[in-house]
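Thread: Modeling a multi-component assembly for a lab meeting

Hi all, long-time lurker, first post. My supervisor asked me to bring a structural picture of a complex we are working on to next week's group meeting, and I have zero experience with this. I have the sequence lines for every component (308 residues in total). Could someone generate the structure of the whole assembly? Inputs are pasted exactly as I received them:
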Amino acid sequence: MTRGELPMALRAAYMVLHRKSEAQFARLGVTTDQFVLLATLARGQALNQRELARRMPSDPSTVRAMLVLLERSGLVQRDTHPTDGRARAVSLTPAGKRKFKQLWKAGDPIRAQMVESLTPGEAHALVGLLRKVADSLNSQSLPRGGNVHALSKG
Amino acid sequence: MTRGELPMALRAAYMVLHRKSEAQFARLGVTTDQFVLLATLARGQALNQRELARRMPSDPSTVRAMLVLLERSGLVQRDTHPTDGRARAVSLTPAGKRKFKQLWKAGDPIRAQMVESLTPGEAHALVGLLRKVADSLNSQSLPRGGNVHALSKG
DNA sequence: TATGAATAGTGCGTATACGCACGACATTTC
DNA sequence: GAAATGTCGTGCGTATACGCACTATTCATA
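Re: Modeling a multi-component assembly
Sure thing. I ran the full set together rather than chain by chain. Output:
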């Protein structure tokens, strides 16, 4: 197997998922990434923006831009943090919770199709392998230049 | 396993890959997606813009914006298509070919790390599973609303 | 061959994605 | 308790990502 296949396969799979999700959620007036943000908040309310970004995962700058829009549409609120004057405590509004339930239903066909294209064992394995790869990339600081093999083979 | 884990794991893995790649390629003056475009062109020269978009995969509008930038930096050229007056034949310039080789080397640590975090069997399986999921999402037109299970269980 | 349908590319608008610099507040250290 | 250091959020700039409307060209067919 060629080395470059794995990154490209990962990219291709994500892109299709993203496109299909976008089409599914558009009717409900939110984007795929806004759904991810709402889902993350639904799991853990009153996060600050950095923690929210870490969990999505996304960038704090990006999350801020998203929150501005979501706040404007009334799905999310940002209160001043009780103990940390720098931070803001983000949480779903009641409307946000309702919208999230609606979105979860709307996304079900996509989740179902992904899972049903695989055996239960394959689905489980795929999640495990994706996490393994993600963890590996997350942990290691990559060399800035050149070729790591030139070193390890020397 | 929860249903939502697979999409989130896929998203998380792609995001890390994208971020790490961005950091690696930035020194060389191109983005990760520009690298993908150049790699796609390196495999099949003189594609028109739609075919290029189909292979990346990406959106024709996005590809156009990228080509404008890449053309400006001299890595890519767009000639009028020999037989189709609507289309443009996109190809790498000599500078584009050189840059691509350089980028391929720069990306090697990332590809290496992804592959080496898995056994050869796992890596092979992962690529297969990703393609299976991607193909499944690509082929089926999803229902516009509601829950596909409400139908299949009825 | 005229004409309608399909296709390639363009241009625009909105929403991520992320780096970077900045001010505000916290925490540490002396 | 004041200064150094770190962290949170903001604001800005550039580059995707994609839908949509529009023009130009090609293809199908009457």
